[in-house]
Give the backbone structure.
Amino acid sequence: MLFLTRCFGVTSSDAERTVAGERAIIEAITERVLAMQAKAAAQQHRPLRRGTHAKGICAKAQFEAFDVNVGRDPVLATRLAKGIFAKPGIYPATVRFANSDSKVNSDFKADVRSLSFSVDLTRNGVAALGANGGGRQDFSLQNATTLPINDSTAFLAIMKLLTASNPAVGLWSLPFKDKLRVLRTLTLVQFQTHQKIKPYQQLRYWSNVPFRHGPNDMVKQSATPSPDNPAMPLQRSNPNGLQDELVRHVKEDTKMSSFDFGLQFLDAEKMTYWGKHLDANFWIENASVEWHEAEAAFHTVARLTLLPGSQLTQADGEITSFDVTGNAMADSMPVGSINRARRQGELASRKARMSARSNGAQLQEPAQQRGQPVVAFSYD
């Protein structure tokens, strides 16, 4: 397995990438996303939910952008002061904590957990800078440092497996290189999903993939929980244990949980992959390659704090959506193969879900299920 995780599936040069053929790959991914979304709903005898991250809970929060000039080297402060972080401010936010699976499972099934949130930028005139005029910026993070799916080619290969009527036959039908891509992805999934299960408010989350930060820099993002975020012991007999604990927290605790939000710069001359320095495109295009913090530190620029008594109803949570491409400022747009591939799948999945709701499908709670780990990216 070391060969798979180290030597295969990572593209070391632009010549190895399939950017020219990505449009066809993205179209095929979108078809498979919709198939997986429909398959999960049919198997659980319920209306459509999100293509992945099907089970989650929403609440309100506050996002405070700090003054990045305080106590910092002026050169670093200048690099940090871009977009929403160009000046200090406090903004309303909506958060969603979720499990990554496309099915509604017990919260104690091995899985990756996610934190998505939107920041309302209509205060302080920031909305005028928005790329799409929507007056908000969205973020999507998971409690793993990387995405196990490396790029759009690996994305399509794993989606073919997950939507196959027979997984063994589906794997066998793949070309040899795609078989290796799938095995590599599933190997990384095992490492990421089998973490200690902790309350949502006590997990650290990472963006997995990079984003622009001003005209010259690329960054990854992370939300680190305050060490004193309150939580009660989880009740493993309760299949909704994580969700219910988050609800209990915002309803009952006097201190609300917060997360320090940090940015990690892509500095290719400082970063190494198995001892080698590689160009910036390597770090941008390979979503499964970690940017090690020992070589590229995170710099705290903001704080996300939950608000008391702010849980959204399940119905309101279902119509809440997050879009890191559509709701991004011009100098904060996502980059890289996975980010190029995710957009159409997100839009199609959201359209199908909203259409089903508008046609009268009622939200139901399906029986909790168990099954194979699902490789999930955020379709919110």
